[in-house]
Specification:
Chain lengths: 404, 445
Amino acid sequence: MFDQALEGVKVLDLTQYIAGPFCTKLMADYGADVIKVERPDGGDPARHLGPFHEGDAHHEKSGLFLQLNTNKRSVTLNLKVPSGRFILHELVKEADILVENYAPGVMDAWGLGYDALAEINPRLVMTSISNFGQTGPYRDYKASELVLFGMGGEMHSIGMEGREPLKQGGNVAQYEAGAAAATATMGALWAADRDDEGQHLDISIFETQLGGVDRRHAALMAYAYSGRISVQQAGWLGPTFASGTLPCADGYIEMAGGGHLFPRVIKMLGNPEFLQDPKWLEPGAGADPQLQEELNEFFIPWLMERTKREIWEEGQKARVLCGPLYSMSDLLEDPQFVGRGFWPKLEHPHTGPVSHPGAPTRMAETPRQMRHPAPELGQHIEEVYGHLGYSRDDLTRLRERGVI
Amino acid sequence: MTTLTNGKTAKSTRLPLEGIRVLDFCVVWAGPFATQLLADLGAEVIKVENIHHWQPMTRGFVARPNKDSLPDLPPMLGGYPDGDPGPRPWNRCPGFNNLFRNKKSMTLDLRQPKGREMLERLVKECDIFYENNVTETMEKLDISYEFLKSIRPDIIMMRVPAYGSVGPYRNYRALGVHLESVIGHSLIRGYRDSDPSTNSAIYMGDYAAGVQGAFTVLAALHYRKRTGKGQLIELAQAENAVNFLSEAVMDYTLNGRVQGTLGNRNMFGSAPCGAFPAKGDNNWISITVSNDAEWQGLCEAMGNPDWCKDERYSDQYARWKNADQLEEELSRWTVQYEKYEAFRLLQSHGVPSGPVMHAGDAHSDPHLKERDFFNRITHAEAGTHDYPGFIFNMSRTPPVVRSAPCRLGEHNEYVYKEILKVSDEEYAQLEAEGHIGMDFDPEIQ
């Protein structure tokens, strides 16, 4: 049996939805003991978001929740009542890390702000994830994935000129924020171990986009340096040779083949006679509509005679940067991912065995382990509260009073 | 208390990763973003570069762009300070410079025997070796985990290939946009009424690799502290990024359903949910309504017009079913308002909403000003500008700008003389042999 990298790290997880749970999932999957503290009335709201197994909107059947909460333990606790907060204090005493993503001010209103918790446990690293951060004029504003990506990310330059700008797929910005928070939290844990003193981390999803690497940092720099603002365009460089999302026999292939990369495309196409002319490699040639048309007379039929996978393979032989547009069914069948054992099956009591995305990183000495699937709501109440000294009778009374 | 270059004040001068040294063999964005996070946390990151080798998309699109060609390049590649590449364009490219803050740059030619010797001496002094090249590149350079471990037994080696170092795609090349196509992202992010050929290139895979890579290195450090053992870690960028698309993956594995694009809508039944026109040219406001309370807020903000009372919009399910008509009605309202005006009005009624901000909007945003988000940095060859700031805030050990984005070879003296204890004489020899310099070969265009 391998060790786990974060064995012995104790995390109190007061998060819900996506960004927070993804942050604590990373810790749990690499070995931390993560106790998920859920509200007694329905638990983490992500339990009520799809995709649901067979469309059944049951709180133990949300694919989103099942993926985001692997390896965690679940207890319920009503933080709105004093006895709930008393129990939380007891849990805080033993924790290294507490992560929460309530609206700013909520934890303070419950008497659970950083200053209060640091008095109980000065070594505690407390990470607060919120839409806009714990301070500033937008602090209490409401947001969504779309709103946050539109403000923080480079959505402004995605899509077709003259049409509405487009977000990226799914809830990617919230995952990015969660992983950013996990990284910062691990840094703070390192400092807490060294200095014997914790601290409070303020993660603004808005800022994780603005300072992030998906073109936003670059667009912000370009504006600061030159006053230029990115505009919507298809592809990656604007009009140039063999670039963007291109149709082929059975779908589409994404390719970056213009500019200094065009010789690779010429090689992929089998060095045809007409592409030997030096005019094709002159600076700016790719922007010439006449040359584009001349190329496409040959190139489009070449693409349409081949499948996306064939083009991918031929392109890679010539070092062309490209990749097929896969659907999820293409992806789940792809030999690279299957061959690397990337789709572990987890057995869930309410859904049966289900394939999940595999480990994001493969640590040779401390590989990620799926110790157990996402917990049922309150599954670990007896275990966790029993450890604090609560008897079965105590727990019954707490249940009756709506504390757990 | 120390006053820092950006005016922020730190309570502790000891950053978390002080004393940890990272050898950075990273290219483009995915690797450099990870080492930037480690640098922001206080690690000493040494970027190893070669003045005889130009790595595209790492310090620019090309090394020496023609000034006249800059307007043809998108701003992130062509927006050099004052529209001028300058004598050393590789120190001035907007697409990359921000990733070099708090790092050091040294130059070394690994293809010469002396370069190999210097690398070995450097590895001995480092805790972490971080690279994100095509698998075969490290093989050509004869750099493996076994090699690093033989010099530095507790080293942590992080490798970040596109699809993994094992398997049929081990040497496949990709930018973020290509591997995102492979993991199914490209097919779920276009317009609902258009085919994917209108997609703009985006690079969330780079972001995902950067944050997760930095996280894993920290986990490995934690393990090393406990056991004294380093290790080899592999982050296959495609595998890693799949984790950021869980909803679409799980819909397929649970239900066999292949999701298509939702445009700006979401799979949780929000409606309206989109970017709607605001007053002026190319101005947009995003709005997401997911429940009755938010809908009531939206109706109030609009002054409760009659169309809101239509039974087609009477509950969340009805609004979702009739979202097209609903959003058309809403657009007629939003277009009368300036985007920030609509933002404030809608937020005052509790409606999740926000302007679609371009780079200029962000630079003048009042919230970011109050939170002191941007860092004003003076760079020796680029001048003084506001750089996008840190993605995390820490109360006791806040990240700070310790040094401006590193210029090519800027820290050669420091690395060779202070870390490697190279004599002045040997340094001069290394310079003569072409290891040390601040300019790429003149032949490199």
